[in-house]
Amino acid sequence: MSTKIKYTNEPLGKVKVIADFLPSPAELAFNEEGVKVTLALSKKSIDFSSLKLLKIIPNINA
Question: What DSSP state is assigned to residue 57?
């Protein structure tokens, strides 16, 4: 879009207002029930995962 839009003060002609046909955001959102889960991992697993994550995202503590 390198060309600029030039606006003029011309009449639009016959305008027809239409009803809102889009659903509301509440109707679009999925309302799924959440489940809380507690997960116990070993320190070795956490350390391994942390090292792998640091290789992917080196500045995670920044």
Answer: S
- Cα separation, 41 vs 48, in Å, equals 11
Q: What is the dihedral of CA 53, 59, 61, 62, to 10 degrees?
A: -160
Q: Name the H helices within the chain.
A: 25-28, 43-56
pTM of the model: 0.35
CA atoms 48, 49, 52, 57: torsion sign: negative
Helix (H, G, I), strand (E, B) or coil at 26: helix
Distance in angstroms (rounded) separating the CA atoms of residues 54 and 61: 9
| Residue pLDDT tens, the chain, 62 long | 578 988 888 888 898 999 989 988 888 887 788 899 999 999 999 999 888 888 888 766 65
